[in-house]
Here is the input.
Amino acid sequence: MKKLLITCGTLFALSASLPAFAEDPVGDWTGSIEGMIRLNIFFTKTPSGQHEVNIISPDDDKETIKADKVEARENFMRFSIAKYNANYEAKWDETQKAWLGTWTQGQSLKLKLTRLDAEALAAQTQRRPQEEAIAKSPRNYSSKDVSFQNAKVKISLAGTLTLPQGKGPFPAVVLVHGSGPNDRDETIKDHKFFLVLADHLSTQGIAVLRYDKRGIAASTGDYKSATTFDFADDAQAAVDYLRTHSEINQDKLGVIGHSEGGLIAPMLAANNPKLKFIVLMAGPGVRTDAVLLEQSRLTLLANGESQAEVEKAQKVFREAYSIMNSGADNKTISERLKAYFDQAEKNGDLDKGAGAKQLSRLERPWFRAFIKYDPAPTLAKVKQATLVLNGELDLQVPAKMNLDGIRANMKANKNVVIKELPKLNHLFQTATTGSSAEYGKIDETLSPTALEAMSGWILQQ
Here is the structure.
């Protein structure tokens, strides 16, 4: 009897340890990595029985990323993405009806996945009320597609010219993009930054030319090999194009540059005395390597990294940028960078495989030129009226260090207005933290405060 009770008890214990449910990972799931980055996980099974995982982040330009290795069984999932040195492992929690797991990518972060149904998908769709209003409302300006040449390198740049209603000539601006493969609207996270800016300015009586970067959308040329100085040549070609239009008041022609465009606008002004004014939106005022180091520090802190991890990253990139600015030839710099990153991986300062990714990024022609640039001499040469705007919450071109730099470098110019706009981020959206993770989640594309500051000032020039 005792033996039977033990046997029955053992069977009961075993049966109690088995789940009364079984969840198959196959399906559509959604979650947020500790509230920062949203991920949609699409778990499928091929006819041959192989599991596949595709990942899309609504907060990261909606690129589809396929997992390399996938393991799945009842109540368990695991997958990895070698390209990003990332992996996820989770178990099913019947009480919460969710996968509870850990996303590991340099650090371990909690990621809870729930069903991605129609309601959840609809909740992810962000509204763009400013763009919607532009599409629905009648315009008091004309808009036409145009093209112009950068004869220096024989490329054609495609853009849009908006002209106010009425009899000209009109004050006018060329819009110059920030870094990245931007189209004429400077589309970022489904926000059409330059569309909203052009609409506002032309509604206020200011003509606007915006254009696709070389090699992007309808423009010809090679984007990948271009540097900031090449993009400056393209911006000058845009100014030259407006010089040919009778509708444009040549005495009131200026440039608005955003981010990297805020480096380019002073270049044009310093070399073109006939340019009437420039507007710098989050334009760097100190050396670009210093801007990138501070950008990295603030971004890592905003993403929840520990102070120790931030300091480790700062050390790695400070040394890397020092190597790039050593004055050596490109071949020597690449060799020194590779050796340094290899050692950093051995020391644990970089994750395994991260060095090769960083080397690929730093060896781009654009980055080689950008990291060496000091805007101080060019800013000192600018004699034109200048409006300088920066968002208080800008983590990419931090306000204090860059506004202080511009103020110091342009002290001889008595027609400079500098404004730090409260609660605005790098895209001049009203924000909470300034983190780039917020960009796509914010409905507002461009703050009315920033829009009015620019149009009001331009009309006074």
Notes: The domain at 129-286+374-459 is CATH 3.40.50.1820 (Rossmann fold). The two ends are 102 Å apart (CA to CA). The chain has three domains: 20-124, 129-286+374-459, 289-370.
